[in-house]
Design a protein that fits this description.
Bound molecules: flavin-adenine dinucleotide
Number of helices: 13
Strand order of the largest sheet: 3-2-1-7-19
Oligomer: single chain
Shape: globular
Cofactor: siroheme; [4Fe-4S] cluster
Radius of gyration: 23 Å
Helix content: 25-40%
Number of domains: 4
Largest sheet: 5 strands, parallel
Strand content: 25-35%
GO molecular function: iron-sulfur cluster binding; metal ion binding; oxidoreductase activity
CATH topology of the largest domain: FAD/NAD(P)-binding domain
Organism: Streptosporangium saharense
CATH superfamily of the largest domain: FAD/NAD(P)-binding domain
Number of strands: 27
Pathway: Nitrogen metabolism; nitrate reduction (assimilation)
EC number: 1.7.99.4
Length: 482
């Protein structure tokens, strides 16, 4: 039987993972003939680590997901710098910007998302792209552009104080730039934090050298001069970085009748309304599950790889609960569940602890004995313990102060993951549990490198690497973040 011709459009974090997993299940290409079409000119890389490149602590090579040889070694036809411009679902052909075309049996849309430029005068040029003196942050080319325009002492405005805005402002401050973070909502990260947490986070940003302006929107950008705010104040800036959110990249799908600006709707098999076209990652919408995050993209890739190769025809995607993490310098923030919105459900028991002078805050919403949501700032042990309780659904201990301060589990996971139940998720990006890691340690003989290779734990944001090291045993102390 001829192999199924699968074409993946988009060689980002979802497309790259899908291609890897397909080849893992079908190494010789007997079942699937694979073509990947990527608009960027370089092999896929880990976008989540871009702020490390921005602050100069990482290089493009450090965050590469694939080397240049990867496609050749894995029988993948890789078209780099190739933008898909039209999808003909009747002829089952995808047309590329250079005039060529690729036929498919099954098409996978993995086109990700693109930064959104708010309707503020002077931010966009006539084509809708960032104007002179304005940048967005989505890829390595953006990092290079921002690096070229900033440096020690250069005034920079960052517009948008969500997770990406805070991370970007702190990264640029670490480069020595004079950063002003402007956010129109009354406090930072208002989609994830309540006002107290937002206020403490702003204090931590200020301590890291970032000027924070909240409650005021930018109304006009002036190239080489800066940004005017709605109260008439002026933020001087040689560069304005816009971090105001992303929108799913769906132009191709919409023109082919498969989605809207909100995303491409898919079912639990990642199928669009056309059974020969699938979508995953940031461009896809599964019900009202959260998107724009790495974990769903990689979980979806595993399901689709099972289905496309026939490795598991019963595989179905079930969204996992989202947990927001902010890691920047010394700031450690975790937020999830009901407390995300700062709204407390009437049934919930809400506990909180704040020490603004030390930059610490914990708020936990409990539904009976279940952790329903939390915001934890500057208390990494509490953040880890509460996340474990949330993930596993285990009852919260009755010692509420211990719960708030991170003494709810026998010992903090960073110190000793051996105490945790097998079902504990150690690597959230890759959905790797403690049981997966201990099984891999048994099979491979242990060692961080072997565990990472076997499970991919720590290859996303890299946060869990200390825990993976602890579970790997004494074999080696190396390991990788990417
Ligand atoms: C700076 C930064 C930090 C982040 N931090 C986190 C984090 O801490 N945790 C988290 O969960 N998520 C984070 N994210 C989000 C995460 O990176 C995305 O959820 C993830 O990259 C989604 O993968 P994707 O493949 O769907 O999209 P992408 O990785 O964006 O890949 C899409 C690819 O498709 C290509 N493409 C688009 N259209 C076409 C076309 N027509 N033809 C060919 N190619 C096309 C694009 O060029 C791109 O290479 C962060 C994102 C950024 C930018």
């Amino acid at each position: 039987m001829n192999p199924l011709k699968v074409v993946i459009v988009g060689y980002g974090m979802a497309g790259a993972r899908l291609a890897e997993l397909v080849r893992e299940r079908d190494p010789e290409g007997e079942r699937v003939e694979l073509t990947v079409v990527g608009a960027e000119s370089r092999p896929a890389y880990n976008r989540v680590l871009l702020s490390g490149v921005l602050d100069g602590t990482m290089t493009a090579d450090d965050i590469a997901l694939h080397g240049r040889q990867w496609a050749r070694d894995n029988q993948v036809r890789l078209l780099l710098g190739a933008t898909a411009v039209r999808l003909d679902r009747v002829a089952r052909v995808i047309h590329l910007a250079d005039g060529s075309s690729v036929g498919y049996d099954v098409l996978v849309l993995a086109t990700g998302s693109r930064p959104w430029l708010p309707p503020v005068g002077g931010l966009a040029d006539e084509r809708g792209a960032p104007a002179r003196g304005v940048a967005t942050l989505r890829g390595l080319d953006d990092c290079a552009r921002i690096a070229a325009l900033t440096g020690p002492g250069v005034p920079v405005a960052v517009l948008g104080g969500g997770v990406l805005g805070v991370e970007t402002a702190l990264a640029l401050a670490r480069r020595g730039a004079g950063v002003t973070l402007v956010h129109p909502a009354p406090h930072l990260m208002e989609r994830h934090l309540d006002p107290t947490a937002g206020m403490i986070l702003a204090g931590l940003c200020r301590a890291a050298g970032v000027r924070v302006v909240t409650g005021l929107a930018a109304v006009r950008h002036y190239p080489d001069e800066g940004v005017k705010l709605e109260d008439g104040a002026f933020v001087p800036a040689a560069l304005t970085v816009v971090t105001a959110g992303v929108r799913p990249e769906t132009d191709l799908a919409v023109a082919a009748g498969l989605g809207s600006a909100e995303g491409v709707p898919v079912d639990d098999r990642l199928r669009t309304t056309d059974p020969r076209v699938h979508a995953l990652g940031d461009c896809a919408r599964v019900g009202d599950a959260p998107s724009g995050l790495l974990r769903p993209a990689w979980e979806q890739a595993a399901v689709l790889a099972d289905l496309l190769t026939g490795a598991d025809r019963t595989a179905r995607y079930r969204p996992s609960p989202a947990v927001t993490r902010l890691r920047a310098g010394n700031i450690d923030l975790t937020a999830f569940g009901a407390a995300h919105l700062g709204l407390d459900s009437r049934e919930a028991e809400v506990l909180s602890y704040a020490d603004p002078a030390r930059g610490t805050y914990a708020k936990v919403a409990l539904d009976g004995d279940q952790v329903a949501g939390a915001i934890v700032l500057g208390l990494p042990d509490a953040g880890a313990a509460l996340t474990q309780l949330y993930d596993t659904g285990r009852p919260a201990p009755t010692d509420r102060p211990a719960l708030l301060l991170g003494r709810a589990l026998p010992r903090a996971v960073e110190d000793d993951p051996a105490h945790l139940p097998d079902s504990t998720v150690i690597c959230r990006c890759n959905s790797v549990t403690k049981a997966d890691l201990t099984r891999a340690a048994r099979v491979t003989g242990g060692g961080v490198t072997a565990l990472v290779r076997a499970t991919r734990a720590s290859t996303g944001c890299g946060d869990c690497l200390p825990r993976v090291r602890r579970l790997a045993g004494p074999h080696d102390t190396t390991g990788t973040q990417t």
